[in-house]
Amino acid sequence: MTFPPTRTAALERLSKFVPKSGRDYAAKRNFDLGPGRHDHVSTLSPYLRHRLITEREVVEAVLGRYSLSSAEKFVQEVYWRTYWKGWLELRPSIWMDYRTDVKAGLNRLQTESGLRAEFDAACAGETDIECFNFWAQELVNTGYLHNHARMWFASIWVFTLRLPWALGADFFLRHLLDGDPASNTLSWRWIAGMQTKGKTYLARPSNIAKFTDGRFQPSGRELASDAPALDSPDNPPVGEPPYSDHWTANLPTALLISEDDMSPGFMLDRGLKPQATASFSAASDRSPLVVSPRVTEFTEAALDDCTARYGDRLGNITKSPEDLLAWVRDTGAEQVVTAYAPTGPAQERLDTLERQLKDHNIPLIRILRDEDSAAWPYATHGFFKFKEKIPKLVGELKGLRAAS
Ligand SMILES: Cc1cc2nc3c(=O)[nH]c(=O)nc-3n(C[C@H](O)[C@H](O)[C@H](O)COP(=O)(O)OP(=O)(O)OC[C@H]3O[C@@H](n4cnc5c(N)ncnc54)[C@H](O)[C@@H]3O)c2cc1C
């Protein structure tokens, strides 16, 4: 299996990658040499996305070997993830707008048979564009694509094939093991010129030939030669960042582990003692269409790995209760604690549960990690402004560790 769904696999991958995370990464990270040869990047994204391993652990491991200036590029890439998460937390309506756009796209497929045929060909990797077909199939068969391939693929989807952008983002979310509401939606918007107004990304034949090491050599006629930004409303105003709740000591407590944070140790180490724990995955809600079993099975198995690792600290463990409210009621808990789930399907399920729990006077307590509280409020403008805060944020990580 390319991505074993365990923390052990994530840690092994990290320790193998750390020696390459310095100047090597900066020089070679843009080369996509194909499946089985993604050696210049970490391939940690399925693990980071579910926090089977955390951003903080990865940054600290890299900075245990290199200075921040030597590993600057890699650390910045990890902070792109943090930035996108924070950006969406400050403007969650963008996620709802995206969901509406996916539904509108699917409706068009019902009535426009030409579009339906082109969409089906794109998803099956049966267009006239060889590289695009290859990436569509690599994604479906492995659950992963190199960052550069994601950029080329999305650009060709939008500007050459002229398919609805949201359906492309949905295709990614159905198949990527690291499928993430923030990184995926906002990256597609960025390619299409909706994120940074007017700035688009054009996939160029020479760039593809160079960075695939000649594996693909599309001709100039095959790909669009310009990338006019898609129309979109202005970005919504920046909202308030989320804050962390606090649990009450000595109350009977149930813990919920969602797919968004499979490292509950940060709460257990602060004295949380659940009498019962349930894990749940909302991976099947990432799309209105069927999400690839590769994705749902990865997420389920990773949750099992998590509960097995923490075992005796979690109390009675239940896997994926069909009815979360009934499960909470059965535990007799007077408070339910969970790691904060950012904007996306897991948060939507928790919001529903919170409303139901209110009728029973049971609070749902969402615990935000200190590093997210520190970073997300800076995601107000573009990444270049956010990037200036990275040395400070990294310094605080070390401080946070000293304090914990
Ligand atoms: C159209 C498009 C869609 C994308 N969808 C997703 C997605 O659903 N989920 C996802 O995790 N990433 C997404 N990305 C970002 C990026 O492509 C992947 O995070 C990266 O390719 C993962 O491979 P890696 O772990 O080998 O990355 P590395 O280069 O080894 O980077 C280390 C980690 O940093 C983070 N990271 C790196 N580059 C980015 C980036 N540009 N944006 C955000 N985080 C980054 C990831 O967590 C990654 O695991 C998308 C990018 C594009 C262009």
UniProtKB/TrEMBL annotation:
InterPro entries: Crypto/Photolyase_FAD-like_sf, Cryptochr/Photolyase_FAD-bd, Cryptochrome/DNA_photolyase_1. Residues 74-211 form the Cryptochrome/DNA photolyase FAD-binding domain. The keyword Flavoprotein applies. The lineage of its organism: Bacteria, Pseudomonadati, Pseudomonadota, Alphaproteobacteria, Rhodobacterales. Binds 1 FAD per subunit. One of its GO terms (molecular function) is DNA binding. Keywords: FAD, Flavoprotein, Lyase. This is Deoxyribodipyrimidine photo-lyase.
